[in-house]
From TrEMBL:
Residues 27-279 form the Glycosyl-hydrolase 97 N-terminal domain. This is Glycoside hydrolase 97. Residues 297-463 form the Glycosyl-hydrolase 97 catalytic domain. The lineage of its organism: Bacteria, Pseudomonadati, Bacteroidota, Bacteroidia, Bacteroidales. Residues 1-21 form the signal peptide. The keyword Cytoplasm does not apply. Monomer. GO terms for molecular function: carbohydrate binding; hydrolase activity, acting on glycosyl bonds. Its cofactor is Ca(2+).
Length: 659
């Protein structure tokens, strides 16, 4: 044997030994198009994701850093358990009323070969429209608690996809910002990135990265590092090292979710997040119904020029209760006035509650007992704003009082964190609220994670830059709006301060804190109610801005929960059309960015027979007069097409009723 042949033989033998030392375990989606491959070597545990044989995520490491050492190397696998899941479940509120949970699951036990011999199960589920994985900590001898410094989960992307994402300044924040649309290799490194992040790969494949079932754990963010995206957990308040602390097994992490589709509309249609959450924990859900409410903070508590002043008084609230009663709204929102909440707060500051703030003590000038009785006489509920800290101090006492008053629900504000403690607090609030038949709207909060299946009294969350900003800045316009369906909306219900009915063209927009303007067309503003999933329909403008105005009937009647949804038209970060069915009626909303265009909408999502279609489109002069719209009523069938002329910053709305 020549020396050359000897070296070739040695190299081949080395490669064979290296390959044989690697263990590959995979699971595929029911349709076989999506594959998750787990690769275990003596040094690492990693995974990759393929869709239609195209590599999307490559060689991404998994592991943990605990106070008693690293976990992720020198592991052995136990017996892999597999099963197929195919079930249908009902949602009390949601973008569909009945969803299918269809996937293939594998559970891979990963155990250290040497002491301390810790065991963690990796659970992977492969759906036709995504993959998800999480870690389970089973009961075991010698290890029944942990202090985690890091979850070392990577998302290394293959190629150079386009990315749509939001940078954040730090872990304590309002989860609000503008979106950046850029190539993957141009994403800033070492900056905190909010999830979901959405990616456009070659061949028209789209993927979104987020998480599901975030409970008793810290929220996750992404940071671009040398080897791609790395997951970063929100640390415990007041320090940086400890991320999660668990004192009892079994325990489970949230799901790491990669939604995948061959058209961007497929990302909006998936029910993967609710499928990954536990069934409803509320025994009696008959009281949980979507709500339409005023929210006077946005407009400045404006009242007519009359015999009373706007403020924390009975007359101001009576004016809005009467408006709600006239127009079939379910509730009137009470937050206070100026910087003074409706309850006693020695700090007189919405964002920073004083040490003696007491949410069970309404300020006397408000005359809360009289407001409650008057609202009840008009068939209108009460929707209260509260700061989370004084609420949490008196959770049970406050909720019992609010239930006695007949309050429908609360906006719980200024959470500004998603560390493990705050995640626990949010779930405690939801549990206590359910005991007293109250819905919850989280503001100044992190994104949702599908928990509306488990606690359907969580109606909506903020967690995105929205129209409140029009009171003090110019950041929120149609170009920002169109990013939301492809990012934040993918995580779940989205509260956006909807309903501004006074629009100005961008070139003429001016900032006003009271009676604020918006800079998108009337049809665009109406379409937001259909495009965004949101079980709390807020009408944030004044009665004078609404009554007698074209399109107000849409805001008064658009449902807050749905039976079915489709996305017939969408181009990534440019426009989107969402069709939603409630009963026999279809509602279709289209959002456009800052470029005028015309779309042709096929109505093939309709059933057989004839329908009555109310069609709202931008008026021909909407670019100059964005409050103008055109309305047409016609008979349609599923074979028809509707032409949608979309103005700059425009939109369209259809209400289609079965004849």
């Amino acid at each position: 044997m020549t020396i050359k042949k000897f070296y070739i033989l040695c190299a081949a033998l080395f490669c064979f030994m290296a390959v044989s030392a690697q263990q590959n375990i995979s699971v595929s989606s029911p349709d076989g198009k999506l594959k998750f491959l787990l690769k275990i070597t003596p040094e690492t545990v990693s995974y990759e994701v393929n869709y239609k044989k195209q590599l999307l995520v490559e060689n991404s490491l998994l592991g943990f850093s605990f106070d008693n050492g690293e976990f992720g190397s020198n592991l052995k696998t136990g017996k892999v358990r597999r099963k197929s899941i195919d079930e249908t479940y009902e949602l009390v509120v949601g973008k569909v009323s009945s969803a299918r949970n269809h996937c293939n699951e594998m559970i891979v036990p990963l155990q250290e070969k040497e002491a301390p011999g810790r065991l963690i199960n990796l659970v992977v589920r492969a759906f036709n429209d995504g993959v998800a994985f999480r870690y389970e900590f089973p009961e075991q001898e010698g290890w029944n608690s942990y202090v985690m410094y890091d979850e070392k989960t990577q998302f290394r992307l293959n190629g150079n996809p386009m990315a749509l994402l939001m940078y954040l300044p730090g872990y304590i924040n309002t989860h609000e910002g503008v979106y950046t649309h850029t190539e993957y290799d141009k994403i800033a490194k070492k900056r905190l990135i909010e999830m979901p992040v959405t990616l456009e790969f070659d061949n028209g494949i789209y993927m979104s990265i987020t998480e599901a079932a975030v409970r008793d754990y810290a929220g996750m963010y992404l940071v671009k590092e040398k080897n791609g995206f790395a997951g970063k957990l929100s640390p415990r308040l007041g320090q940086e090292k400890i991320k999660v602390e668990i004192n009892e097994f079994p325990h489970r992490t949230p799901w790491r979710v990669l939604s995948v589709a061959d058209r961007v509309g497929g990302l909006l249609e998936t029910n993967i997040l609710t499928s990954l959450n536990e069934p409803c924990k509320i025994e009696d859900t008959s009281w949980i119904k979507p709500c339409r409410t005023t929210f006077t903070w946005w407009n400045g508590n404006v009242v007519p020029d009359s015999t009373f002043s706007p403020g924390n008084n009975f007359e101001t609230n009576k004016y809005y209760i009467d408006f709600a009663a006239r127009n079939g709204l379910d509730a009137h929102g009470i937050y206070g006035y100026a910087e003074t909440p409706w309850y006693y707060d020695d700090n007189f500051n919405f964002g920073w509650a004083g040490p003696n703030a007491d949410i069970t003590r309404p300020i006397p000038c408000l005359n809360m007992p009289r407001i409650v009785e008057y609202a009840k006489s008009k068939g209108v509920g009460i929707h209260l704003w509260v700061h989370w800290r004084p609420l949490y101090d008196k959770l049970e006492e406050a909720f019992a009082l609010y239930e006695k008053w007949g309050v429908k629900g609360l906006m719980v504000d200024f959470l500004d964190r998603d560390d493990q403690e705050m995640i626990r607090i949010q779930e405690e609030i939801l549990q206590a609220a359910a005991r007293h038949r109250l819905f919850i709207q989280f503001h100044g909060s992190s994104k949702p994670s599908g928990l509306t299946r488990t606690y359907p009294n969580e109606f909506t969350r903020e967690g995105t830059l929205n129209y409140e900003v029009c009171k003090w800045d110019t950041l929120v316009n149609a170009d920002h709006d169109i990013s939301v369906p492809f990012t934040r909306l993918l995580a779940g219900p989205t509260d956006y301060h909807l309903g501004g009915f006074r629009a100005l063209p961008r070139s003429e927009f001016k900032i006003q804190y009271v009676n604020p303007y918006v800079m998108s067309t009337r049809c665009h503003m109406m379409a937001m109610y259909v495009v965004l999933e949101n079980h709390l329909t807020s009408l944030c403008d004044t009665p004078m801005a609404y009554e007698g105005q074209p399109g107000f009937e849409v805001l008064r009647t658009v449902p807050g929960t749905w039976d079915e949804m489709h996305v017939p038209l969408a181009e990534f970060n440019k426009y989107v059309t969402v069709a939603r069915r409630n009963g026999t009626d279809w509602w279709v909303g289209t959002l456009n960015d800052g470029t005028a265009r015309t779309l042709n909408l096929k109505l093939d999502f309709l059933g057989e027979g004839e329908y009555r279609a109310e069609i709202y489109t931008d008026a021909p002069d909407a670019e100059r007069n964005p409050n103008h719209l055109s309305k047409e009523i016609r008979t349609v069938t599923r074979k028809d097409k509707i032409e949608l002329p979309l103005a700059v910053d425009g939109g369209a709305v259809l209400r289609i009723s079965k004849l």
